[in-house]
Write a structure and sequence with these properties.
8 strands, alpha+beta, guanyl-nucleotide exchange factor activity, coiled coil, 8% strand, RAB3IL/RAB3IP/Sec2, 9 helices, 377 residues, Sec2_N
């Protein structure tokens, strides 16, 4: 049965409307795109058969599903891109954090290294001080024997408040100068019941001016003689104590004491007889000699020289008398204590330090007046 175009149109339109409804339900917002495709096919102005309508529907559905897949893929790519950007940002932050941590560790290591080097230098300085003290103690020990003890090492062997030599008489200690006032009869032993005069207790009172100068110096201790504290001591004690007849050599000795480069060593005793010799012995160390009765290189007086000095690294030795040695030793003891205060090795309070300085000043005063301790042979 052949149908006319006029009778077939309503059937085709109804089918298209049904297809559009289904497309609207299934496609939603994409109906405009599918409708454009149907309109494009409809522009031929020819009636579409059911097969052609189905093919158009399938093409539109396929295009829509492909478009939807592409949109999903785009969303997935965008999400992955965001994840990648986030990971890159986290990686950069982690790298920056690691670099910062590494720099921090390097800085801390440098600070610790600097602190360790500073402690090492301080320890080496303390070791040098201790070695110098050991050397000085060895030098003093060399001059002390059981038969002839050094009274500087053993102050208990000397009575308080007296200076000079002593001898034992009948179990008591008597001063030679005191025994000369009451001479004993020849051939008769001295009485053993000699009484000892009591010694007055020493008292002291602080000088406010001296103490104020010491406190001002102690705030910034140094060996610069421009301070009022050291200027006074140089003027009243060090200068007079190291002022000998040989002025040029005296200046060299004072410079060596200030630079801590002066060496005092004993001349070893031997069975050789006393001989006359020059006060200056050139050519560097040549072993210990016997005690030499000669002119003191500093005072110019003929004395029994049991010690000799060396100034720095020079090869010359200068034989000195016991009095000159006592004066040099007193000044050296003062400078040693002042250096200890400067280096922070003295743990006493200010008043104790002050009285120790005053005691060392008194030793310089006593030494420059000619008093010194002797060893009994």
């Amino acid at each position: 049965m052949v149908t006319s175009p006029g009778s077939a149109a309503p059937h085709w339109k109804s089918e298209r409307k049904k297809s559009e409804k289904r497309a609207r339900r299934s496609l939603g917002n994409s109906w405009t795109l599918q409708r454009g495709c149907c309109n494009l096919l409809d522009a031929n102005k020819k009636p579409l058969t059911m097969q052609m309508s189905f093919l158009v529907k399938c093409d539109c559905d396929l295009f829509f599903y492909t478009f939807q897949e592409l949109k999903l893929k785009d969303k997935e790519c965008e999400r992955l891109s965001q994840v990648r950007n986030q990971l890159e940002q986290e990686l950069e932050e982690l790298t920056a954090s690691l670099f910062e941590e590494a720099h921090k560790m390097v800085r801390e290591a440098n600070v610790k290294q600097a602190a360790a080097e500073k402690q090492l230098k301080e320890a080496q300085g303390k070791i040098d001080v201790l070695q110098a003290e050991v050397t000085a103690l060895k030098t003093l020990v060399l001059t002390s024997t059981p038969s002839s003890p050094n009274r500087q090492l053993h102050p208990q062997l000397q009575a308080s408040g007296t200076r000079g030599a002593y001898k034992h008489v009948g179990g008591h200690i008597r001063n030679k100068s005191a025994s000369g006032a009451f001479p004993s009869s020849p051939g008769k032993p001295e009485p053993s019941s000699v009484s000892i005069q009591p010694v007055a207790k020493e008292d002291r009172e602080m000088d406010s001016v001296l103490y104020a100068e010491f406190l001002m110096w102690k705030e910034h201790p140094s060996l610069d003689r421009s301070s009022a504290f050291l200027s006074r001591i140089y003027r009243e004690d060090i200068g007079p104590c190291l002022s000998f007849t040989r002025s040029e050599l005296s200046q060299l000795v004072q410079s060596a004491v200030e630079n801590n480069s002066l060496t005092i060593e004993p001349v070893a005793m031997s069975a050789l007889p006393m001989v006359k010799a020059s006060a200056i012995e050139c050519g560097g160390p040549n072993g210990f000699r016997a005690a030499i009765e000669t002119k003191c290189a500093l005072s110019g007086m003929t004395r029994l020289c049991r010690h000799r000095i060396k100034l720095g690294d020079k090869g010359s030795y200068y034989y000195i008398s016991p009095s000159s040695r006592a004066r040099i030793t007193a000044v050296c003891n003062f400078f040693t204590y002042i250096r200890y205060i400067q280096q922070g090795l003295v743990r006493h309070d200010a008043e104790q330090m002050f009285w120790e300085v005053m005691r060392l000043r008194r030793e310089m005063t006593v030494a420059k007046l000619g008093f010194y301790l002797t060893d009994q042979g």
